[in-house]
């Protein structure tokens, strides 16, 4: 009888574990940097940040608590062939949106930051934000928008700012830090 209970518990645990994404354990490392093939977003602002990932549908809104809240996302594809946008706002009503956008193309991840839907008085502009590859030996570029820089050349300010798009190896981990 004990064998049956133990086996049943083990089977239930295995079923639960198999329902989780295969790479869940590898998505965030102990040093709070993104593992390869993902982005880690860290909120260093003194206010909550709201995040939602958009493919062909909008995902659920997630709260990144003030002063260190994190969100991680493994690279995914958009079923309609477009890119993915992780939208970030300090307002749950989705005002002043900073976007981290990415698209997979075979062995490359193309990514950018977009300030197109963000006001110049945004908390993101006031305190700055930066994307850095987690592997210092990577040939992947970074994008840094310093505190107060409302005309940051490392981000899209208008839809034709294509110079702000970067390409990196698909297994690159990127860390987006909000509030320097």
TrEMBL record:
Residues 1-19 form the signal peptide. It holds the Pfam family Bys1. InterPro entries: CetA-like. Keywords: Signal. This is Extracellular thaumatin domain protein. It comes from Penicillium ucsense.
